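Internal tracking record. Fields below are filled automatically when a chain is submitted to the structure queue. Please do not edit lines marked as system-generated. If the sequence contains nonstandard residues, flag them in the REMARKS field before resubmitting.
Queue: standard
Priority: normal
Entity type: single polypeptide chain
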Amino acid sequence: MKTKIVLLLTIVSFTATYAQTPDFSDTHIVNGFERKITGEDFSYHSSIPPAKECLLIRATDGNSTMEWETSPAPEKFEQEFVTFVWLAGIGSSPGRARFDLQVNGEDKFSFWADGSNNWELDAADGSSLSFQKDMIDQHGDRFGFMYLKIPAQKVTKGKPLKIKVTGGKFDKTSWYMTFKFPLETRLSLKSLPAISEINGQKKQLGVIGVLHFGNPSPAKIYIGKQLVKKTELQFGYNYLRVDLPEVEQDKTVSYRLETAGFTEKGEITIKPVRNWRVNFVQHTHTDIGYTRPQTEILAEHLRYIDYALDYCDITDNYPEDSKFRWTCEAAWAVDEYLKSRPAEQVERFKKRVKEGRIELTGMYFNFNELPDEQILAASLQPIKRF
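SYSTEM-GENERATED OUTPUT FOLLOWS
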C-alpha cells in the first residue's frame, strides 16, 4: 500500500471539511483493517458516511471481544515507524469503561471510553496508540481514526498484524467499534439534481468526498479538460463541492483528481435536471385539544390576537425595530376571530394586518404529518374568506 492514499467517495449532504492533521514525516501509513477474524457484526453511522459496517464490543462481563487483521506491512520502506490506521467509534454515554488492545497476542494498551476527543498512549517499546475525534454524534459518542504507531524494527515486513480488543468487566453497555472500512483508493463523484447560477452561467451541483492519508497536500480536480477546483487536502475525509456543466440530455464526462505524486480518474454520467415549480406552504402545529378541551383552547387563541392588538397599540411610538409584531400560525384562529369579535375589533385587526404588524399564514390546520395534495389544497380554501 502506498504511503499516500486518496479516496474520492460519493457524498450528498456534507460540504465542510473536518479532519485532524497528524505528522507523518517519520512513518509509513498502512491500512489498519483488512479482514475480520472474530467479533459481532454491526451497522452504525460513522464520521465517514459510506462507512457503516463494523465490529462491536461492549464493556459488560469482560468477555466481549473482536479481532481483525491489518493489511501487510510493506516489504521495503525507509521511515522509522509504521502506522496502522483504521476508523473507530467509542461510546461513553452509558458510562466510563476500559478496553484492552493486543497486538499479535501481546497485551499492548488499555484505553478508556470516557468522552475524550483526543488521546495518546505510549508503550515501553516505543509503540503508541492514539485516537483523534472527527465527529460527535447526537448521543455524545466519538468517531474518528485510531493510529497504532510501531517502530520499524518491531514490524515483520510483508506481514499483517492481528489486533484484538476486549471490553472490560464494568457491567456497562459502553462500547467500542472498529469499522470494516479498508483505507483503499476508490474514486467516484455524484451529480445532484440542482442548478445554480455562477457569474451568469448555469452549473449543476456535484459533490465529492476525498479521504486523504498524509500531510496537507494541494489538489486539483478536472471535469474533462477543465480545471474546476483547487483545494488543499487535509488528513481524513474532505468534503468538496464542484460545479458541473449543465446538460440537456445524458452526457458522460471524465473527471480526474491530481495531488502530489498521485492521480485518480473516472467517468460520470450527468443527467439533465428536471425543471420543477416548487410551492412552499407554511407548516404549523396548533393544539386543538391535546392538553385541554377544544372550547378552552379556541378561547385562548382568540385572546392571543386580542393581546397582540393591544401590544401593537402600546408600542406604536417605539423605534421601528422595537414595535410589537405577531404571527397567527394557523388560519383557524383567524377564521373564528372574524366570526366572533365585534366589528370594531375586527377593523383593528385588519388595520394591523395591512400595516404588516400582524401576519396571516396560509395553512388552516395541519391535521396530518403527511398531507397529500388534496388535503393541502382543501386546507387553503378558507383563505378566500379573509
